[in-house]
Amino acid sequence: MRKAKKDLIVVGDRVLVKIEEGEERTNVGLYLPPTAVDNQAVQSGTIVATGPGLPLPAPDTNPEEPWRTTSRETRFVPMQAKLGDYALFFRKAAVEITFEGERFLVVPQAAILALVRDEDFDIDTL
After folding, report:
1. Taking the mean position of all CA atoms in its chain, how far away is CA 99?
2. How many angstroms from the chain centroid is the CA of residue 9?
3. CA of 85: how far to CAs of 22, 78, 81, 121, 122, in Å?
4. Is the pLDDT of residue 23 over 60?
5. CA-to-CA distance for 88 and 57, rounded, in angstroms?
6. What is the pLDDT of residue 105?
7. Which letter does DSSP use for residue 41 in this model?
8. Which is nearest to 15 in space by CA: 91, 96, 86, 106?
9. Which residues contact 123 (CB under 8 A, 6 or more apart)?
10. Model confidence over 33-70: pLDDT tens digits?
11. What is the model's pTM?
């Protein structure tokens, strides 16, 4: 994700989620205070960046001769979560960060419960 002249690079099998700001409201119209929302086990938000996935070990690695290396490109297990997906995830697994004045959550892919994907998503709408 790029802001001004800085890049925020997500590593491994993690995703960067934009937190939904504003007051939360129940189905009957009651507004929930931030303390009530923070105590919920599941949270949701829009994925704005993803890591490359988990790196795969080299198939030709020889544990008997660890000094012997072959030059090859690193391969990754692909991420299931994609840019623009709406994710439902376990709140306790997320780490909150602030980047360029905006709040985000870094969430491991294993903590994501479900994804909602909009095929017509445009990143510029965020």
Report:
1. 14
2. 11
3. 20, 15, 7, 8, 11
4. no
5. 30
6. 94
7. S
8. 106
9. 48, 83, 84
10. 666 556 678 888 999 999 999 888 766 656 676 666 66
11. 0.70
